[in-house]
Amino acid sequence: MKSLMNSAKLNPDELYYSLTTTVSESSQQRDGWRRTLGGDQWLVIERKVYNVSEWTKRHPGGRRILEHYAGEDSTDAFTAFHPDQRYVRKFMKPLLLGELAPSEPSQDHGKNAALMEDFRALRKKLEVQGLFRTSPLFFILYLGHILLLEALSVALLWTFGNGWIISLLISVILTISQAQAGWLQHDFGHLSVFKNSTWDHLMHKFIIGHLKGASANWWNHRHFQHHAKPNIVTKDPDINMLKILVLGNILPVEYGIKKLKHMPYNRQHQYFFLVGPPLLIPLYFNMHVLQTMYLQRDWVDFAWYLSYYTRYLMFYSPYYGIVGSLVLMTFVRFLESHWFVWVTQMNHIPMDIDHDKHDDWLSMQLKATCNIEHSPFNDWFSGHLNFQIEHHLFPMMPRHNYSRASPQVRELCEKYGIHYQVKGLWESWCDIVRSLKKSGELWLDAYLHK
């Protein structure tokens, strides 16, 4: 992208170094280029060039997504995340620098133009088929079964008291309710339910804040990065394991060569069972949510967060006391954490984890995601995240339509030789452990011999 047709006066060489990188360049070099022109960050959307340097501070999806796409054509990412593009473009007008010259190709970094064109045609086809339209009854019933489980736990206490058997039964019921509320907040967070995104945002805060005791903004800023650059080192927060785990085939070798040994990584497939599934939600997520709300001065989400604890203690402290109620809550989150980790990681940890190769949207998502077999139980148990491929390609598509989109996505992948991977549920869980074991062995070999 060396030339630009615009109303502003732009140096073509400056544009080149701001918008162009090569696959072979290291992430440090690319970050240096992004700081060109006094830290300006430029990106391309539908052949128009925008300077988003200042907008990153106000971007509703968080500043990091824009930073991750600085210097790239982000047309498909823009389309995937914005339901009302005409509204968004009002904010983009002041950021416009100009347009690419007619001689410049739309794709960058050597991407396959035909593949990108066919993928965009598929998206339009799915829109015409109505697969981006929501079935209100589906989400009404889904929310209803969560609220029913919450009410059932209180009814059991009121009727039978707080004996051990009833307490264990309530723990299971609340775990199911919390896990399913987690999948439902995910739907509203992706703006995939209402035509008016304002209602999605409100329901998202209600479910993740009032029903789960977390923060909508914390989830948005973290999760959207994952969708924008899944399994990309330094860009996807979901593969940042705080030096406790090393994932994929690249990071373990890099750690080994640098003689980094924060943990005995060759044993990570064993200690994963102690630090991953049991601790992610009750320890790490809880601490990170509070820290984020405090640092961001997010008092609205904090109010929703407090409403959860107020409601919870109001219902359960008469039977367990405040300390006992908090113990029950921690136990429920301990159980939910196992459910959450195995479901969310079965699609990603065994897949390709690497530095940014600047692939097209379809190729990038298929490298990082796989599907789990379709069945009524798998759909319910995973919140339809067993259709992770379709969800990543079209994050605003209502989940009840993934099964209808799946054959058409598979057909496109077959046309271009892109692997569309589908596994069984148990196989996918075993693959998590096998992947951790392989990564640990790569680390040990590099640590000892390189």
UniProtKB/TrEMBL annotation:
**Membrane-related topology note:** Multi-pass membrane protein
GO terms for MF: oxidoreductase activity, acting on paired donors, with oxidation of a pair of donors resulting in the reduction of molecular oxygen to two molecules of water
Any Gene Ontology CC annotation: membrane
SMART domains named among the record's database cross-references? Cyt-b5 (SM01117)
Q: Which residues cross the membrane?
A: 130-149, 155-176, 271-295, 315-335
Q: What pathway or pathways are given for this protein in its record?
A: Lipid metabolism; polyunsaturated fatty acid biosynthesis
Domain named Cytochrome b5 heme-binding: residues: 14-101
What SUPFAM superfamilies would the database entry show? Cytochrome b5-like heme/steroid binding domain
Signal peptide stretch: none
| Pfam families cross-referenced by the UniProt entry | Cyt-b5, FA_desaturase
UniProt keyword terms in alphabetical order:
Fatty acid biosynthesis, Fatty acid metabolism, Lipid biosynthesis, Lipid metabolism, Membrane, Oxidoreductase, Transmembrane, Transmembrane helix
* Similarity-based family: Belongs to the fatty acid desaturase type 1 family.
Write the protein's name: Cytochrome b5 heme-binding domain-containing protein
Native species of this protein? Hemibagrus wyckioides
